[in-house]
Write a structure and sequence with these properties.
The chain contains 3 helices and no strands. By secondary structure, the protein is mainly alpha-helical.
């Protein structure tokens, strides 16, 4: 909570100095980082698998709950 509060106060009090930034060209990034970006199909597939797994768990829970209430168990 303290970290959040400190960050919030710093954000409220931050005043960018645009003139100093534009006069110092060395601040500009001169390198480009290349890396591996996974396919968007991986994200969609993992989402669908998660939804399917949660659906199966919910259906089994409903089935178990309805069987318990019919037999008089709790």
């Amino acid at each position: 909570m303290t970290t959040f509060a400190v960050g919030y106060v710093k954000t409220l009090n931050y005043k960018p100095d645009w003139e100093a930034v534009w006069t110092n060209v060395e601040n500009l990034q001169s390198e480009v980082a290349f890396g591996y970006a996974p396919s968007s199909y991986l994200y969609v597939g993992s989402f669908l698998v998660t939804v399917l797994a949660c659906g199966i768990i919910l259906k089994r829970h409903e089935k178990f709950s309805s069987n318990s209430s019919e037999t008089g168990g709790s």
